[in-house]
């Protein structure tokens, strides 16, 4: 039987519940949810099918900053840039149909580079689904292969749970992009909504495997017995916020460590055990010595073909220890002798405990020898050129001297990207923002906008080629309108340089459609009220770079660089890493 | 079967091209779009699905897919990992034919006149383990449950007698060494799963995956 006390408690509980109930539209509850998830910045573009969400957004201007981009591809790349520098989930809005299809490149880029995003697209009314309605497109099926998860909401009552799941999935485990497609009827549907509850468990989803000490022990045994151990690290170290743990591991074990371009910056460039870059345009020693090491410890990297070169001649002599959070990556491209499943933030400290202190001086000396050869034959001529033409490398050297490794460098894709990754100095993690896996030209400018919002106190320099810049130049409009302080550095060689380099080396110099002309970039920037100048001569380069970096506000600097300079060293496609060419 | 035995078995039963039939069993949430998510994992790699069945499992609300492909061990292992990575997928097993009990159902429609004239129905029923589902004046429908070779054999036998229609279902398979999914599900529902869930073949306890 109910006592009076029970009745009072129940009434209080009811009152409590009704206080927590929120009556409003699906759009409002979506925006409330974003705020609950800590979102402050949204990159987006409105349209018919997402209008109710934008109508609600009108009243949230004090809590949610919306950056109106000029194209949805720009919006999603900006969200990627934001996520990469801030470590938070990037959020992007787009409308149905063309708005949604314009996101596909960014989704694919975020999927392959494990960038956490929550993307919201509007969709036609649920009763119109499948009728080929105006701006209807099958977004869920188009985006399935390029999302970690996606879901179509047709009822406002689903929004909170789906949004909570989306954030959890996007940022946990191996991060990735999540897309929620919301039909217009759900956006306008009025309901009483319960309190927003964050998601921290989905029964069919294991974000990270449980760490098993057995593998750590096996790995430590191999490492302790190794004479020539070699660490290869990737973005997993950064995504797992395990930079300190990683540093502790190499500091104690004394093992030389080389990075994939996605892992660059996880430890400072100047760290004595940082031996450089892996892969096609990576450093000489790290590539050659991959085929001489006796134990390779791969941490948070996935043995991409641009890193491994020819697989059947890759590190065949070495025992492979592979640490990764994604079980599907272990044994995918390179067979591991010991696969350590788990979050490297957890596995690395366990491993550090078990490995012996070591210096590996003789082995490090071998790296130094190779480095000296590379300095003499490649690096010095690139950074201190004697010819008349400006080289991309000397531009990077000047940036290093001016910024001292403190700047965030965002790159596009191509020769300038390889040069920037090779020569830029980084003191801090989350400072090298580039499109690694997908190689998306047009990524640089919009990603730099997002990068600046993600790290407002940092100098953000977008290094872009003349080709890539012409893929997404419309985002100058976003910079103009919102004043994002991005330093745009166009390295103009009047060619699609990387393709030209391959045509020179492998297609008998048959320069097929790589001769690209450009508009007057300075005039273009000025049309957007962005300060700009062009530099053609070495004597003006340093001052121009200083002007750009010290300028209050965004700035565009176009540097005319040598037309037919090549990026070396190079592992030609289909060759082994030890067959790397210095020229 | 331990991983080593499994690899040995695989080596012994390979086709000339190094491939054989594998049955992939997927336990998953029942969600719209998941079938597409799984199917594109195969089509992305240009791998043909020989047979695909989607059905209820022993647990209410948990779906079970049986997918048959003709591939090598390494490829199947990688595919299984990619499928298991999908958010709504709980668990993926892959087995060679000796590790499973499987059946396919086939239906055959034949002219009753033809059959009555030229061959005794009774003989067909006995020889192929067929059952007559419908017998009408104009046609008869037989059903056979069994392996591919068995259902194929009856197609051959009926060819001379005007086989009007033929259809075969996807494969359904039960894993011999499986204790079902009930216990596993409890672990999935727990926020901190036990070690069983994170099986790792590197521990050389790969056999556990199939014995449960």
UniProtKB/TrEMBL annotation, chain A:
Question: Boundaries of each Thiamine pyrophosphate enzyme N-terminal TPP-binding domain copy?
Answer: 25-140
**What cofactors are annotated for this protein?**
Mg(2+); thiamine diphosphate
The record's remark on the cofactor is: Binds 1 Mg(2+) ion per subunit.
Q: Name one Pfam family in it.
A: TPP_enzyme_M
Source domain of life is Bacteria
The GO terms describing molecular function are: acetolactate synthase activity
Listed A to Z, the keywords are: Amino-acid biosynthesis, Branched-chain amino acid biosynthesis, Magnesium, Metal-binding, Thiamine pyrophosphate, Transferase
Q: In which pathway does it act?
A: Amino-acid biosynthesis; L-isoleucine biosynthesis; L-isoleucine from 2-oxobutanoate: step 1/4; Amino-acid biosynthesis; L-valine biosynthesis; L-valine from pyruvate: step 1/4
What EC identifiers does the entry list? 2.2.1.6
**Positions of the Thiamine pyrophosphate enzyme central domain:** 216-349
NCBIfam families, alphabetized: acolac_lg
Entry protein name: Acetolactate synthase
Provenance organism: Pedobacter fastidiosus
Q: Which gene encodes it?
A: ilvB
Automatic annotation (TrEMBL), chain B:
Q: Which domain of life is it from?
A: Bacteria
Q: Which reaction does this chain catalyze?
A: 2 pyruvate + H(+) = (2S)-2-acetolactate + CO2
Assigned EC number? 2.2.1.6
Q: Mind listing the UniProt keywords for this protein, alphabetically?
A: Amino-acid biosynthesis, Branched-chain amino acid biosynthesis, Transferase
Q: In which pathway does it act?
A: Amino-acid biosynthesis; L-isoleucine biosynthesis; L-isoleucine from 2-oxobutanoate: step 1/4; Amino-acid biosynthesis; L-valine biosynthesis; L-valine from pyruvate: step 1/4
ACT domain ranges (all copies)? 23-97
Instruction: Tell me one GO molecular function of this protein.
Output: acetolactate synthase activity
PANTHER family xrefs = ACETOLACTATE SYNTHASE SMALL SUBUNIT (PTHR30239), ACETOLACTATE SYNTHASE SMALL SUBUNIT 1, CHLOROPLASTIC (PTHR30239:SF0)
Protein family per UniProt:
Belongs to the acetolactate synthase small subunit family.
Tell me the subunit arrangement: Dimer of large and small chains.
Please report the name of this protein according to its UniProt entry.
acetolactate synthase
Q: Record the organism.
A: Pedobacter fastidiosus
């Amino acid at each position: 039987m109910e006592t009076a006390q029970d009745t009072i408690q129940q009434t209080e509980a009811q009152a409590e519940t009704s206080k927590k109930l929120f009556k409003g539209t699906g759009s409002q509850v979506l925006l409330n949810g974003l705020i609950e998830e800590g979102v402050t910045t949204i990159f987006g573009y409105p349209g018919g099918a997402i209008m109710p969400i934008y109508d609600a957004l009108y009243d949230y201007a004090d809590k949610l900053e919306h950056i109106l981009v000029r194209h949805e591809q720009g919006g999603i790349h900006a969200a990627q840039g934001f996520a990469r520098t801030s470590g938070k989930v990037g959020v992007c809005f787009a409308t149905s149909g063309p708005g949604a299809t314009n996101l596909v490149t960014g989704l694919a880029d975020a999927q392959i580079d494990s960038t956490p995003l929550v993307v919201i697209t509007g969709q036609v009314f649920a009763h119109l689904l499948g009728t080929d309605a105006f701006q209807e497109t099958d977004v869920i099926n188009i985006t399935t292969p390029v999302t970690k998860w996606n879901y179509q909401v047709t009822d406002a009552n689903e929004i909170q749970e789906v949004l909570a799941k989306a954030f959890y999935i996007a940022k946990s485990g191996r991060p990735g992009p999540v897309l929620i497609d919301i039909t217009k009827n759900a956006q306008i549907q009025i309901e009483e909504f319960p309190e927003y509850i964050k998601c921290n468990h989905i029964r069919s989803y294991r974000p990270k495997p449980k760490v098993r000490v057995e593998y750590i022990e096996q790995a430590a045994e191999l490492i302790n017995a190794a004479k020539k151990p070699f660490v290869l690290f990737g973005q997993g170290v950064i995504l797992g916020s395990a930079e300190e743990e990683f540093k502790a591991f190499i500091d104690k074990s004394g093992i030389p460590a080389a990075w994939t371009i996605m892992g660059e910056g996880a430890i400072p460039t100047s760290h004595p055990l940082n031996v450089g870059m892996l892969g096609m345009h990576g450093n000489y020693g790290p590539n050659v010595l991959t085929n001489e090491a006796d134990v390779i410890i791969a941490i948070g990297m996935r043995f991409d073909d641009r890193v491994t070169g020819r697989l059947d001649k890759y590190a065949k002599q070495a025992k492979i220890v592979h640490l990764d959070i994604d079980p599907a990556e272990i044994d995918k491209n390179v067979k591991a002798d010991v696969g350590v499943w788990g979050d490297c933030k957890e596995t690395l400290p366990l491993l550090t405990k078990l490995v012996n202190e070591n210096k590996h001086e003789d082995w490090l000396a071998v790296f130094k020898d190779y480095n000296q050869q590379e300095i003499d034959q490649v690096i010095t001529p690139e950074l201190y050129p004697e010819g008349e033409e400006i080289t991309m490398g000397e531009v990077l050297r000047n940036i290093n001297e001016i910024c001292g490794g403190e700047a965030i460098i965002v790159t596009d894709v191509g020769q300038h990207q390889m040069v920037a990754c090779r020569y830029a100095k980084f003191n801090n993690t989350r400072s090298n923002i580039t499109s690694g896996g997908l190689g998306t030209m047009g990524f640089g400018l919009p990603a730099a906008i997002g990068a600046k919002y993600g790290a407002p106190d940092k100098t953000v320099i977008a290094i872009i080629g003349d080709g890539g810049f012409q893929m997404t130049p419309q985002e100058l409009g976003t910079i103009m309108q919102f004043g994002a302080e991005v330093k745009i550095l166009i390295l103009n060689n009047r060619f699609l340089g990387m393709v030209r380099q391959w045509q020179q080396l492998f297609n008998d110099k048959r320069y097929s459609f790589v001769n690209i002309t450009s508009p007057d970039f300075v005039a273009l920037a000025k049309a957007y009220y962005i300060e700009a100048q062009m530099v053609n001569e070495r004597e003006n380069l340093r001052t121009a770079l200083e002007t750009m970096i010290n300028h209050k506000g965004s700035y565009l600097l176009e540097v005319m660089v040598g037309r037919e300079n090549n990026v070396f060293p190079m592992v030609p496609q289909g060759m082994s890493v030890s067959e790397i060419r210095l020229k | 079967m331990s991983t080593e035995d499994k690899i040995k078995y695989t080596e012994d039963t390979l086709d000339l091209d190094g491939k054989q039939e594998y049955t992939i069993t997927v336990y998953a949430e029942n969600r719209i779009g998941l079938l597409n998510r799984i199917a594109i994992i195969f089509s992305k790699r240009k791998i043909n699905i020989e047979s695909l069945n989607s059905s209820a499992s022993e647990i209410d609300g948990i779906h079970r897919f049986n997918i048959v492909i003709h591939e090598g061990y390494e490829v199947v292992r990688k595919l299984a990992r990619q499928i298991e990575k999908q958010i709504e997928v709980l668990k993926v097993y892959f087995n060679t034919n000796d590790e499973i009990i499987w059946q396919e159902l086939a239906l055959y429609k034949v002219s009753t006149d033809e059959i009555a004239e030229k061959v005794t129905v009774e003989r067909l029923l006995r020889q192929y383990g067929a059952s007559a589902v419908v017998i009408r004046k104009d046609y008869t429908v037989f059903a056979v449950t069994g392996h591919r070779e068995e259902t194929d054999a009856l197609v051959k036998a009926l060819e001379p007698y005007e086989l009007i229609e033929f259809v075969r279902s996807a494969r359904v398979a039960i894993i011999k060494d499986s204790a079902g999914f009930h216990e596993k599900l409890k672990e999935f529902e727990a926020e901190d799963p036990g070690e069983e869930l994170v099986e790792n073949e590197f521990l050389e306890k790969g056999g556990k995956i199939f014995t449960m």
